[in-house]
Amino acid sequence: MSDALPIEVTSPTPLLELRGISKEFPGVKALDDVSFAVYPGEVHMLLGENGAGKSSLMKVLCGAYRADAGEFYHKGEKVAISSTADAQKLGIAVIFQEFSLVPYLDIAQNIFLGREPKGRIPGTIDRRKILADAKRVLDTIGFDIDPSTTVDKLGVAQQQMVEIAKAISQNARILVMDEPTAALSDRETELLFALIARLKADGVSIVYISHRMAEVFALGDRITVLRDGRRIDGVRPADVTPDQLVRMMVGRNVDMTYPRNFADKPGEVLLEVKGLSASTGISDINIEVRRGEIVGLCGLVGSGRSEVARAIFGADPVTSGEIIFDGKSISGEPDLAARRGIALIPESRKSEGLALLRSVSDNLVVSALRKLFPSGLFDKRSAQRTSDGLIRQLRIATPSARQTVGLLSGGNQQKVVIGKWLAAGSKLFIFDEPTRGIDIGAKSEIFALIDRLVAEGAAALMISSEQVEICHVCDRAYVMCEGRIAGHLTRSELTEENIVRLGMHHA
Amino acid sequence: MTDITKGAIAPPRSFLSQDAVQLFYRLLAALLICAVLAVLSDSFLSLGNILNVLRQASLTFFIASGLTLVVLTAGLDLSVGANVALSACIAGTVIHKTGSPALGILTGLACGGIVGLLNGIMVTALRIPSFIATYGMLWVLNGLTYWYMAGETLHGFPAGFRQIGSGYLFGLPIPVYLLLVFLGIGTMFAQRTIWGQEIYAIGANPVAARLSGIPVARRLLLVYAVSGTMAGLASIIFLSRLNSAEADIGESLTLPAIAAVLIGGTSLFGGVGTVFGTFIGALILTLVLNGMNLLSVSANWQPLVTGVIVILAVWLDMKTRRRAQ
C-alpha cells in the first residue's frame, strides 16, 4: 500500500515517535526496524498476529524492554526510554491484560499506591485527602463509585477503570491498552469506548491492541500493522477493508467468513443431556448434539456455559440429571469421559490445557497414552512420530516436537490442546472459547479444523463469547442465561440479535 | 508465520533434552569429586572403599528413588524414615516369631506399602497437602514404633537373611546388585511406561493432567504406595545389614533421602527430574561424606556440607534452566 508516502496527520509533530526500533532475543528478532508515531488525541490501533511483535513494541514503549537500536522523539525532541521511570516521565502508561492492582487495598489506595498524601503523624496517610483526590480522578473518567471500596469486590471492567484512573492520576498522555475488551461484556465494552472518546477529547493518545476487527474500525484513527517483528504498513480505517487488513497481518489470504458445509442431515444423537444440574450453579440443562454438527453454547460470561462443559466432562460433580453419550448413560471423573471419547478443550489453555514446561510431544500424546501404547510401555520415538504427524496436520509452528510448549504462541498452543484429543481419537469435542487470544489466521485454521472433524463424523459443542463466530460456524445454538438454557436457535434463527435477546438478564 | 519457525527459534543444545544436560553435569560433578578424593587420599580408590561407598549410597537410594516419584508429582513424603523404622521393627518381630525371613520380608514390604497408601489416601481423598499429611504420618509412625518396641532392641537374625545386607556375590555386595536392579526398574517405570509419563504430566500441571483424562487420584495413590514400599525395602536391607532394629533408626534417614532427590535435580515444584539423577545425587552425597571421613574431617561438619551441596545443586539447576529458556 502507501508504504513510502507519509500519512496525512492532524497535527504536525507527533506526541511520541519511535524510529527504527529493533529488539532481539536469543534466536528471535522480536522487533526489526519498526517505526511508529502517536499523535495527540488519536486512537492508534496496533494490529498483528500473536508473535508479530505487538507486545514487544509495547514493552519497549513503556520501558520494560530496552531497544537494541532505534531512537525516541517526544514532541520532536530526542529522548531516551531505558526504564519504566523514563516512560512514566514522558506520560506513557500501559493497561495490561493482567491488572497490577492490590486486591485488599481500596480504590483510592490503589490509585495513589506509593504516592499517598502524607498525614500529620509521620508514616500515616491523609485519609481524607486521598479519598477526595481519588474521587476527583474517578470523576474525570466518569466512573461513579465510592473510592473506599476494596478492589477485590470489583469486577474486571471496574478494575480496568481503576487502572485507567491510576494512569490518568499520573498525568498519562499516552495510554497503551492491551486487548482491553477481551474480558468485558458488550455493555462494559460500550462504557469503555465512551471513556476512550472522552480521553481523546482531552488530548490523550491511545495505543490500542486488539484482535477484534469491529473495534479496529469503530475506534481507530490510524492503524499500524506488524508482522514477524516488522512494520508492514500504516493505514487509515477508511482506506482499507477488513480483508485487506487480515492479508497484511498474515501475509496471505484468509477468509474471515469461515465457510463450511452446514449439516443438512445431521447424524445420530451422540450426546444427550437431560435435566442436568450441578453444584457449580447450573440447573435443568437439556442439550442434544448429533454427529456431524457444531452446536453453539452461548450466553454472557458467567451464565454457566463453562460449567455445563465441565459437568459433561465429569470435571465437576453432577447433582441431578443424566448424561447419555453414544447411547449409554455416563458418569464419573474426566478420565472416564476421555476414555469414552469426550474431549474438553478448556477455556484457559495455559492453566488447564497444557503442561507448559513439558515438550510439544509430551503434551500431544498425554491423552492418547493408553491408545498409542496398549501394552503400557511408552516409547519416546513412537510418541514423537505421532507428534510429528499432528504437527504437520495441524500446521503447528514449532521448531521441533521437543520444543517446550510454553514457548509457542497462543494459537499454536491451542492447536496442541486440540491435537492431544485428535491423537486420542475423541468423538465429541467440547470447545470452551477456542479462539480466545488467538490471531485471525490461526482462528480460521481452527474453525476449518473443527469443520473437518465434524465432517468426519465427530460432533462439536462450542462455547464462544464472540457471537459472530457462533453465527458463522454453528449449525444451531443453545443460549444460556443465569445457569439455565434460555433458548435454542436453529440455523435460520441464529443471529447476533437473537443470541443477545435470549442471553440478557430479565430480572 | 512459517519463516520464523525455520530454525530461527531453535534453542541452543536442541539435540540434548534438558534432563540429559542436567544429568551430564551431575555425572561430571561426581567424577570430579572422585578425582579430588583420589588425589587427596590414598585409600579412596581401594576396592573396599568403593564398594563401601556404593553400599552406603544404596540405602539412601532405595528410600530416595520412591521419594523421587512423589516429588515428581510436586508432592513430598516426609514419613519415609519413620516408615523404615516401623517396617524394620515389624519385619524383625515376624522373623523372630516365625523364624521365616521370607515372611518377614513380605511383612516389611507390606507395612511400608500400606503406610504409603495411607499417605496417598490423605493426599487424594482428604486433599491434605502432602507435606502436612506425611509430616503428621511421621509422628504417628514414630509413636506407633516407640509404643510397639517399648524401648526394646531386636537383635540377631538368621544368617541367610543377613546375607541380603552384608553378603557378597561375585565380589560385589548384594545391596549393590539390588541398587542396580531398582535403578533399572525405577528408570524404566518413570521413562518407559505410560504411568511414568502420566506422573510427569501430573507434576507439571495437575489441573491440565486431570482435564487431559489422566486418573490423577489413582496415580497419586500409586506413587505414594511405591514410595512407602521402597521404604519397606530399605527397612529389610537395614535390618539385615545391622542385624538389629530399634525404634529410632529412621530419624537420620529422611533428610538425606530428600537431599539425594534434590541434588539429583528433581524439582520440588514437580514435573522435572529423573530416578537416575537421584542415584547420582545419593552417590555424590555418599562420596562427599566418605571423603570427609577418609580425610579425618570431624563428622560434625557433615550436615553443614550436605546443606551447602543441596543449595548449590538447586541453584545451579535453576541457573542452567533459566538460560535454556
What is the CATH architecture assignment of chain B? Orthogonal Bundle
Biggest contact: A-B, 50 and 39 residues
DSSP helix count of chain B?
14
Mean pLDDT of chain A: 87
Into which percentage range does the β-strand content of chain B fall? under 5%
How many extended strands of chain B?
A: 4
According to CATH, the fold-level topology of chain B is ABC transporter involved in vitamin B12 uptake, BtuC
Q: Low-confidence segments of chain A, ≥5 residues, pLDDT <50?
A: 1-9
Q: Helix content range of the residues of chain A, please?
A: 25-40%
* DSSP strand content of chain A: 15-25%
Strands of the widest sheet of chain A, in order across it, are 6-7-8-3-9-10
Task: Spell out the blueprint of helices and strands.
The complex is a heterodimer of chains A (507) and B (325).
Chain A: E1 16-25, E2 28-38, E3 43-47, H1 54-61, E4 69-74, E5 77-79, H2 84-89, E6 92-95, H3 107-111, H4 127-140, H5 156-169, E7 174-178, H6 186-201, E8 205-209, H7 213-219, E9 222-227, E10 230-235, H8 242-250, E11 269-278, E12 282-290, E13 294-299, H9 305-313, E14 318-325, E15 328-330, H10 334-340, E16 342-345, H11 349-353, H12 360-365, H13 369-372, H14 380-394, H15 410-424, E17 428-432, H16 440-455, E18 459-463, H17 467-473, E19 476-481, E20 484-489, H18 496-503
Parallel strand pairs in A: 3-8, 3-9, 6-7, 7-8, 13-18, 13-19, 16-17, 17-18
Antiparallel strand pairs in A: 1-2, 1-4, 4-5, 9-10, 11-12, 11-14, 14-15, 19-20
Chain B: H1 2-5, H2 18-40, H3 47-72, H4 80-98, H5 101-124, H6 130-149, E1 154-155, H7 159-166, E2 168-169, E3 172-173, H8 174-192, H9 194-204, H10 206-211, H11 216-242, E4 244-245, H12 254-263, H13 275-294, H14 302-324
Antiparallel strand pairs in B: 1-4, 2-3
Helix pairs in contact in B: 2-13, 3-8, 3-11, 3-12, 3-13, 4-5, 4-6, 4-11, 5-6, 5-11, 7-11, 8-9, 9-11, 12-13, 12-14, 13-14
Provide a descriptive summary of the structure in words:
The complex is a heterodimer of chains A (507) and B (325). By secondary structure, chain A is α/β, with parallel strands linked by helices. Chain A has 18 helices and 20 strands. In chain A, strands 6-7-8-3-9-10 form a six-stranded mixed sheet, sandwiched between helices. Chain A has a six-stranded mixed sheet with strand order 16-17-18-13-19-20, sandwiched between helices. In chain A, strand 1 and strand 2 form a beta hairpin. Chain A is globular, with a radius of gyration of 25 Å. With 325 residues, chain B is mostly helical. Chain B has a single domain, classed as ABC transporter involved in vitamin B12 uptake, BtuC. In chain B, the strands form two sheets. Chain B has a two-stranded antiparallel sheet. A two-stranded antiparallel sheet of chain B has the order 2-3. In chain B, helix 4 runs antiparallel to helix 5. At the A-B interface, helix 10 and helix 11 of A face helix 1, helix 9 and helix 10 of B.
